[in-house]
Write a structure and sequence with these properties.
293 residues, alpha+beta, C8orf32 fold, 2 domains, 5-stranded antiparallel beta sheet, 9 helices, 33% helix, globular
Length: 293
Amino acid sequence: MRRALTVILLAAALSVLLSGCGSTGGENTENNAFFYESFDSEQKSAYDAFMRSIEDPFSGKEAEILSENGEIIAMPRDSLDLIYQGLLYDHPELFWLDRTYAYRPVTNGNDEEMADAVAVIPVAASEDELNKLKFAFDESSDSLLEGIDPKIGDGAAAEQIYERLIRHAAYRGEAADDPAFVLEHTAFGAIAGESAVCDGFALAYRYLLSKRGIPCLVIPGESSGMAHTWNTVYWDGCWHEADPAWDASLTDNGEREYFDLTTEEMNKDHKREAGGLSELIPVAGADSSNGLR
């Protein structure tokens, strides 16, 4: 008998790994799959299963987690949470994926929740609706990037894109804990919807910089005792942290308070989550003579 898929909520996961100026923290920073390339082979197998499910998202058909030898493998559900989060952070253009996913449960005799297949859940009701969302997203993204001189350096481009984003989109606080506001938690919200919460801003900035080929990561953590996300960006041989959501919500005059900060400076009112994905995220502003990788 075919086992039913179980829908779960994506758990928030994610501390500080010391690496500094002069290193991108690994060879994978300059592509759009930083976390994928940082995962081990088993984690990559689950990530690949999610990506196969994306190829036919409306079917509800699960994609089996396959080892390098093509054998079906089962993984702890908590591990899948982390992997799916890494996928969403790697691919903000997949804004149309729900923050929940489905999985096929298996038992291992130890009462540990396991799964050997996964399926993504689209937020759109149909292919037609999804295509309309993608069109609006692409059109708005191109508009935000229009006119930025391709000859300027990455730091100057990152600054211009940041300023455009925080003026373009409004912070929508009521969407933070309301499940009705799904897209406000995605790059679509900040780019095409012109309103978002912190993860929407961070994913949007990540996406816009990727269009310029500028390495950027989303950092999960907290601020003011609440879950929060922001960014770290790589240019001129160093990482630089930025929080577009806070600058969009806290400054009425367009001044930037949270752009181009070191991790130490950001930590005055931000705190990265301990463990998980954050162990892979470099520290910003470390002395270039120390902590190189």
